[in-house]
Amino acid sequence: MEDENIITGLEKVLREQADSFVSKLEEINKQRSEAFSPFQEYLEEETKKLIETPPSNRYFNDIITSLQEIEEKLTKGQQEYQTVLKNMHEIEQSAFGEYRAAVCEAFKGAFEQVFGQLRERNNMLSEISSHHSFEDVLQSLKDELEQLESVEEQMAALGDDNPVAQVYNLRKKEVAERLELLETKKSEATSPIYFPVYIEAWNKGQKIDYAVNAGVSELFEQALKTVLKDLGRNSPTIREGDFTHSVMTGTVNGGGIVPLLEEELEKPEYDGLRVANIIPKYFVIPSSTKQLLDWHEQAKKAAERKYTAKEVSEILGISPSTLDNILYIHRREILDQHTVKERNRRLITQSGLDAIKKYREKHSGSSTVSPIRHKKLTRNEKIIKMYREGMSLREIGEEFNITPSAAGYVLKTNGVFTKNRISKHFISLKDIKSAQFYGVPKFPKSQIRDNMFLQMIDCLDENQEVYYLGLEGPNFSSYIELADIMDVNPDKSLVAEHNRNAYNMMDSFVRNHDAIEGGEIFDGLNLYYGDLSNALDHHRDKKFNFVNLDYMGPFSKEKVETIRKLFQEKRFMEQSVLYITVSNHPRDIKKTELEKSLPEAVRDEVQKSGQHNAIKMLLDDFASMNDYIVTELSIQEYKCRKTPMMFMSYKVAKR
User: Fold this and answer.
1) Other C-beta atoms within 10 Å of 147: how many?
2) Other beta carbons within 10 Å of 497
3) Region class of 540: left (phi > 0), else alpha (psi between -120 and 50), else beta
C-alpha cells in the first residue's frame, strides 16, 4: 500500500505541473496574438481603402504617405514583438524550471525510499562480510535459492517477457551460480583474498534487482529498472511521441541512467536530491504497464535495420554485380542483426540460393576459364543504358517487370543521378564540390592546389584556353577551381575514372549540366571509364597543356606507361604544365614497379634516392627522346589522411 501511495503521489504531482506548464504556454500564445492584432486590423483597413477608392494622382501621393506610415508602424511593431518574444522566452524558461523542480522533488521521495531500503540491504551484507562465517554465507544462499524455487511456477506463469519474471530468472541464475562456485571451490572462497571479492560480487548482484528486493510496486519497478535503463539520449521535450522517438530508439553502449545511480551507491553520504537530479532530463514515465510495453514494441521496431546491396554481397562473399545477375534484391526485407545464417535465410529465396550454388559450382572448379571478350550487359547495365538513351523510369520498369521506384533504385545505387535529383541536391558547382558521395573517398587537396594554380599562371598565357587532362572524382574539385581561374575548353579536355559508381556520378553531371548553375564547364567534357593510359588510346586526336596525374598509390608500371604515351605520342602542347601526385609511404615505395620500368642505367638511382629523383630522371629521358624540355618547378611533401604524399610540378615545352 505504501508503494502504491508513492506512485499515486508522484503521478499526481507530475500531472499538476504538466497542466500548469500547458496553461502558461497557452498564455504565451494569447499574448503573441494580442501583440499582432492591432497591426493586422490596421493593414486590413488600409487595404480596403486602396481597393474601394478610385485612383488619382493625388491619391497616389496619399498611398505613398500611407505606406510610409505603415512602414513606421511595422518597425515599431517589430520592436514591440521582439519584447513580447523576450517575455515569452522568460515565461517559458520559468514554467520549464518549475516543472523540472517538481519532477526533482517527486522523484526525490521515491528514490530516497528505494535507495534507503537498498542501503539497509548493503549494510546487512557488510555485516555478513565482517561477522558471519563462510558457512553462514553458504547457508544464506541455499535459503534464498529455496525461496526462489518455491515461487518458480508463479514466475513461469507470468511469461518470459514479463519484467518481474526476467528479474526473477536473473537472480535465480546468479544465486545458483554463486552457490555452485562456493561449494566446488570452498578452499578458495574461504581464503582471505577471495572472500572480499565474493562479498563485492554479491553486493553488485543486489543492485541488479534492487527494485524487486526493495518491495517497489510493479509499475514503479518497471519505470526504474526497464525504462530508465533504456534511456540513452537526452530528450529536450516532455511530449510522449518525441520521447519515444528520440530516446527509445537510441543505442546505449554502457550508458544510460543505471550506471549513474549505481555510482551514487558507492558514495559515503547518500543525497536523495542529487540522485533525483539525474532524472529530470527524462521527463516522461509510463502511465501504465500497457504504455510501457507499447514503448518497448516501438523501440524494437526502430532498432530493426535495413541492409544495402553492398552489405548483402559482403555477407554472401560475392560481388554486387554478381548478386545483381543472380537475383533481385528486395531491399526492404528486414534482416536479423546478429546471425549471418539468419540474414541469408531471410534475404534470399530458395531459388536464389540455388542460383548462387550453381554459379559457384560453374566458376570455382576450373582455373582456366577463358576470358569473355564481349560480355553481355547485366540487368543493371541495361537499365542504365536505357535511361541514358532517354527512356523514362516507367518505361524501363515495364521492360523489366519492375516498379519505376525499383528502376530508380538501380540508378541511385549505381551512381546515376536523375535530372530531378541533380536540380534538387546539386544546384551549383559549389554543391558538387562540397558533397560527400557514398562509397567514394574524399581526399583533402587544398594544400597543393594553391601552388598548382600559381605555377600554371606563370607558365601559361593568361588568355590561353586550357586543355585539361586529369584524374577527378565526382567532386571535380581541381577541374572546378581551374575553370574559375582560366578558360577551360571542355570539348578539348579529358577526364578518366576507373571506379564505376564514381564515373556514373560524373557522367550524370556532364549529361545534365544545364540543370546546374555554372554547369556549362561540363558541356562537352570527355569522360572515360577506365585507366588514363587507355583513355589516351581512345582519344588520340587530343593534346593538352594542363596535365594533372593525381594518383593515390606509388609510382608504378601503369603510370610510367601513361607518361610514356604523353611524350612519345606528342600529346603535350607548345607550353604545358605537368603535375604528378603519388604516395610516398616507405611501405608503398617497396612495392613499386618503377625499377622494372626504368632504363637499366637509372635503376641504381631509384634505390639510392627514392621516387622523386627516379621520376625526374624518367621524365628527362622521355623528353630528350621526343624533343621536349622538362623543367622542375617544385616538389612538396604533405600528408593526406595520415598517408605521406609527394606532389611534383613541371613545365613541359617543345624544343
Assistant:
1) 11
2) 24
3) alpha
Average pLDDT over residues 126-146: 63
Task: At 53, list the grid cell.
Answer: 477608392
Distances in whole angstroms, Cα of residue 390 to Cα of each of 102, 394, 418, 419, 493 = 65, 12, 11, 12, 25
Determine the Cα–Cα distance for residues 594 and 563; give it in Å rounded to an integer. Answer: 12
List the one residue out of 616, 618, 551 whose CA is nearest residue 585.
551
Alpha carbon of 284 to those of 204, 240, 272, 290, 430: distances in Å?
A: 28, 7, 20, 15, 44
Q: 603 near 595, Cβ under 8 Å?
A: yes
Lowest-confidence region among 411-425, 472-486, 596-610: 596-610
- 3 state SS of 363: helix
Residue given cell 486590423 in the structure block: 41
Instruction: Check whether 506 has a pLDDT greater than 50.
Output: yes
For residue 574, the surrounding DSSP H or E stretch is: strand 572-583
C-alpha cell at 209: 534487482
pLDDT number for residue 233: 29
Are the C-beta atoms of 541 and 491 separated by less than 8 Å? no
Report helix, strand or coil for 367.
coil
Each residue of 463-495: b (16+ CB within 10 Å) or e? Answer: eeebbbbbbbbbbbbbbbbbbeebebebebbbb
Distance CA 284, CA 302 (A): 19
Give the amino acid at 195.
F
The amino acid sitting at 569 is E
DSSP per-residue string spanning 234-248? ------HHHHHHHTT
Q: What is the pLDDT of residue 133?
A: 52
Cell 569522360 sits at which residue? 527
Measure the N-to-C terminal CA separation of the chain; round to a whole number of Å: 103
Widest pairwise Cα distance in the chain: 112
Q: What pLDDT score was predicted for residue 274?
A: 43
Q: What is the pTM of this model?
A: 0.45
Q: How confident is the model over 540-550, as pLDDT tens digits? A: 889 999 999 98
